[in-house]
Design goal:
This protein is an alpha+beta fold and 201 residues long. Helix content is 22%, strand content 41%. It has 2 helices and 14 strands; from the N terminus they run βββαββββαβββββββ. The strands form 4 sheets. The chain has a 4-stranded mixed beta sheet, with no helix packed on it. The protein has a 4-stranded antiparallel beta sheet with strand order 8-14-10-11. Strands 2-1-7 form a 3-stranded antiparallel beta sheet, with no helix packed on it.
Length: 201
C-alpha cells in the first residue's frame, strides 16, 4: 500500500477521522512516544495504518490497515465498490494507469492528425474562383503548371441564392486551366488544388 493516501479520503472507525494525508513514521509508536501521543492519532508505519487508542488508562496502537471503513469526502462512482483503503488504492491505481494509457493514445492520434494536416498544407497549393455572372461554361485559369489538380465546385441555387456542392463536369483544359461545364447558366464558386508532390510507379 502506498502512503500517504490520496487527498479527499477519510478514514472512519470508532472515532478515528483523518482527512487526506496520513503521516508516515519509520516504526509504530512505542514507549514514551506512544504515551504522549494524542488519542485518535492516525499514522502509517511498516506498510500499515495505525490508530492510537486508550484502554484501561493505557495507550495502544490499533492496526487499521484492512479493517477500517472509509467514506469518500465527495461522491465517487469509482470507489463505490471499495470497502477498504487497500481496495480503493487499487481501484484508483488501475484507473490512473488506464487514464494515462488513453491520454497517450489520444495524444498519438492528435499528433498523427496534425502531421497529416501539415502535410496536406505543405504539399498543396490552392486557387479560389468565383464567377461574375451565370454561365454554362466557366474557364478557370489557376496557373499551377500542372495536370494534377483537383476542383471542388459549388453551384448557386437561383431560388435560394445559396451555394451548394455539386457534381459537375470539370475538364482539365491544359496545365494552367480547368473548365467547368453546366447544363444551365449558373454562378459558381470553385476551389482548385494542386499536388506539389506526386507518387511515381
Amino acid at each position: 500500500m502506498a502512503f500517504p493516501f490520496v487527498h479527499g479520503m477519510q478514514i472512519v472507525k470508532g472515532g478515528f477521522i483523518t482527512n487526506a494525508v496520513v503521516e508516515t513514521l519509520s516504526a509504530p509508536l512505542s514507549g514514551e512516544e506512544l504515551n504522549e501521543a494524542q488519542v485518535g492519532r492516525v499514522y502509517a508505519a511498516d506498510n500499515k495504518i495505525w490508530g492510537v487508542v486508550e484502554v484501561d488508562g493505557s495507550k495502544k496502537n490499533v492496526d487499521l490497515t484492512s479493517t477500517y471503513v472509509y467514506t469518500p469526502v465527495m461522491s465517487s462512482p469509482l470507489l463505490s465498490g471499495a470497502t477498504t483503503a487497500e481496495e480503493a488504492d487499487e481501484i484508483l491505481s488501475e484507473n490512473i494507469v488506464e487514464l494515462i494509457t488513453k491520454t497517450d493514445e489520444h495524444e498519438e492520434k492528435i499528433t498523427d492528425l496534425t502531421d497529416k494536416v501539415n502535410d496536406l498544407s505543405e504539399n498543396s497549393e490552392t486557387f479560389v474562383y468565383e464567377s461574375e455572372s451565370p454561365l454554362t461554361t466557366h474557364t478557370i485559369q489557376h496557373n499551377f503548371a500542372s495536370n494534377y489538380v483537383d476542383a471542388m465546385v459549388w453551384v448557386k441555387n437561383v431560388d435560394t441564392n445559396k451555394y451548394t456542392a455539386d457534381i459537375v463536369e470539370v475538364e482539365v483544359t491544359d496545365e494552367n486551366t480547368v473548365t467547368v461545364n453546366l447544363a444551365e447558366a449558373r454562378d459558381i464558386r470553385v476551389v482548385v488544388r494542386k499536388a506539389v508532390k506526386t507518387a511515381t510507379a
